[in-house]
Structure formats: structure tokens, C-alpha cells
Amino acid sequence: MKLIVLLLGLAVGFGGGVWYGVRHPDQAKKIAEEEERRVLEKQKELLAKLKTKLDQLASSRTVGPVKGVGSGFLSGTPGAAQKDPEVDQLKAESDSQMAEIERIMKKK
Q1: CB-based contact 15:73 (threshold 8 Å)
Q2: Secondary structure class of 48 (helix, strand, coil)
Q3: Which residues have CB under 8 Å from 28's CB, separation 6+?
Q4: Is residue 98 part of a domain?
Q5: Which residues touch 65 (CB under 8 Å, ≥6 apart)?
Q6: What does pTM read for this prediction?
Q7: Into how many domains does the chain fold?
Q8: Residue 95's domain spans which residues?
Q9: CA distances from 29 to 11, 41, 62 (A)
């Protein structure tokens, strides 16, 4: 019974949205543009947070210690720090996504 009511509500909501979009195309376009702008802004915020976390991770994490003279457990000197290539790749991808969002927002 609940499923039938939910499906009926979904059908009425969808049908009402389509009807409103057909009857008022200018207002529907404005609503769609505003919704898209909000989504892009939220995506931009999330990418900025992701980039901050990736920068923190890249500065604090290493692939592993490099074995060498005096780099053992008891010697007290850590191995040389190496960058993690996966973190660098994720940073590059987030930069390209951020540039794409900026391009889309400028176009509108």
C-alpha cells in the first residue's frame, strides 16, 4: 500500500513538473539555471575541500622509507620522503575539474 502511494506521488509530482514546464517555459528555465548554479557552487566548495585535504596528505605522507645507511628502526633517522603518485594524480584531476567548473560558470 505504501509503495503504491509513493509511486502515485512520484507520478503526480513528475507530471506536475512537466505540465508546469510546458505552460511556463521561461520560469522553468530560470528555475533550472538557478538549480544548476547552486549545484556547481556546491561542487566547487567540495573540490576546494578535497584539494585542501590532498595538500595536507601530500605534505605529511610518504610512500615509505628508503632503506639506506643509518635509516633503520634503531638508528632514529627516517628515510628520505617520497611523494605518493596517487595523491599527485588526484590533485591534478581535482584541478582540472575545478577549471571545468569555472569555465561552465563563466559561460552562464
Answers
A1: no
A2: helix
A3: 20, 21
A4: yes
A5: 71, 78, 79, 80
A6: 0.60
A7: 1
A8: 23-62+80-108
A9: 21, 18, 49
Whether 68 maps to a domain, the answer reads no
Q: What is the pLDDT along the chain (108 residues), one digit of tens a residue?
A: 999 999 999 999 999 999 999 999 999 999 999 999 999 999 999 999 988 888 888 777 655 555 555 555 555 555 555 677 888 888 888 889 888 988 888 886
Check: CB of residue 82 under 8 Å from CB of residue 63: yes
Among candidate residues 105, 37, 16, the one with its CA nearest the CA of residue 29: 37
Please name which of 32, 33, 12, 44 lies closest in space to residue 108, comparing C-alpha atoms. Answer: 33
Tell me, yes or no, whether 92 lies in a domain: yes
| Residue located via cell numbers 605522507 | 61
